[in-house]
Amino acid sequence: MPSIFSRIVAGELPAYKVAEDEHHLAFLDITPLVEGHTLVIPKKEVDYIFDLPPAELAALHQFAQRVAKGVKAAVPCRRIGVAVIGLEVPHAHIHLIPMNKVADMNFANPKIKVAEERMQELAAAIAAQVPAADGAAPAAAGKPLASKAARETAASNEAKTADQGPADTALEQLRQLTEGLYFVSESDAPLAAVSYQAPSGALDAKEVLKLLNQPADTLVQEQELTYFLRNHTADDGVLGSVELANRFKALQMFLKQELEDVKVYRIGKGPQVEAYALGKTSSGKLAGFKTTLVET
Question: For the sheet containing 220-223, what is the strand order?
């Protein structure tokens, strides 16, 4: 009887796939230890991983290395833990587990339950970050700044426009995630990473307007991030590109995982509305992105 993994390979059972080539497949564990827990398998059914011929064992680990880079880029963590247990399913597989402490790798820990929507979001975000087999960077990774000087210059420029101190790690990652992305309304507008000093109290409409130097009577409407990006994260949405949809999913997941209390603030009213997605970073600043909507 084929293993459950062989049935996934054959398409008989569904899976949250994150990477695939001719001989290997990677997908999310449906009973994970932590979010992003990923399984890497050879498509050929072999019970015991060390029964694989040396070349196939090496190829499996090389494929797992690429997948691990994708998981690390998409799921905030200190390291990707690697484990081979081999007792649960009679089909060789490698566990890739995002970890911040050793206890995250303990298989005696209770498994967590992750909602289907969240699993789809995780799978898409990881898939968008897995490097190509030839070592090329994934499209979603964005281009790193060329030098330390360039990074410092960009940070300084952003600080001036946002009236803030030096940009933090979250802002740098947001720059990479938003690079080349456009929000489609009645016209296209680029997304730009932003960061501000957070107010001492809650970020309400009054504080948002003060932060952005807008008149106190300007209309402010709040939206939930997932709702705001819904057309751009849908594979068959307004973008007409799965690759771009995956990039928006990766951005959405980063904002929801790395920032607290993320909301979208729509400033003003048609035909042109400024929109800011903002949340608190671990350093206590506000970060996110801004764009422009055209609504007639």
Answer: 192-196, 286-294, 272-280, 260-267, 220-223
Cα angle at 287 between 96 and 238, to 5 degrees?
75
CA neighbor of 96 nearest in space, from 40, 147, 53: 40
Q: Which two tokens stand for residue 81?
A: 């833990």
Report the C-alpha gap between 261 and 153 in whole angstroms. Answer: 29
Q: In what order do the strands lie in the sheet with 38-42?
A: 17-20, 24-28, 38-42, 94-99, 79-83
pLDDT at residue 296 is higher than 50? yes
The model's pTM is 0.51
Give all domains of the chain, ordered by start, each with its CATH number: 4-141 (3.30.428.10), 148-294 (3.40.1460.10)
Q: Which residues are catalytic?
A: 93
SS3 246: helix
CB 130 within 8 Å of CB 19: yes
Neighbours of 27 (CB within 10 A): 24
* Token duo for residue 100: 């911040």
Peptide bond into 271 cis (omega under 30): yes
CA–CA gap between residue 191 and residue 168 (Å, rounded): 18
Q: Which residue has the tokens 């949250």?
A: 16
- Cβ partners under 8 Å of residue 11, min gap 6: none
Question: Quick count: other Cβ atoms within 10 Å of Cβ 270?
Answer: 10
Helix (H) or strand (E) holding 268: none
146 versus 296: which is more confidently predicted?
296
> b/e map of 148-159 (b: 16 or more CB within 10 Å)?
eeeeeebbeebb
Q: Which of 17, 26, 21 is nearest to 134 (CA)?
A: 21
Taking only the tens place, the pLDDT of each residue in 89-117 is 999 999 999 998 888 899 988 888 888 88
- State which amino acid sits at residue 213: N
